[in-house]
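Friendly challenge for the regulars: who can give me the structure tokens for this chain first? No prize, just bragging rights.
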Amino acid sequence: MAVENYEYPGADRILAEKGIKLKRGDGHIVLAECDQAAQQIRVMTVEDASAGRRGTYCFKAVGKTGRLTLELPRVFAVEAPDHPVSADLTADGRTTTVNVPKGGFESVGEGTVGGARSVLVELRVTG
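First reply, four minutes later:
Bragging rights claimed.
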């Protein structure tokens, strides 16, 4: 009998190639190639070539709800064009939840006035 552990497939390769640590999820939020014409969740970070981190990461929502745990440092904005999204970020040992409405864009972490460097630790599609 197979037991589902919900670990993200190919996570080690994705970390090495794209600079993002994907941990686990329910399969309803998946990393995607960014396409300006597509309805995608977009997460903006401070690009860092030495860490292999890109400036924008895109995710496809496959369903009305979904969950993905990850580690993505230096996130400063989240955009949710086609589904409302909830994002958990940690900074200075505290976790903050930011809700982004469908069609919305929210500055987070160091993207806000006086905001701390934040790590995105969870994305949820909420409807």
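Strands lie at 21-25, 29-32, 41-45, 56-61, 65-73, 75-80, 85-91, 94-100, 104-107, 119-126. The helical segments are 11-18. Your move, everyone else.
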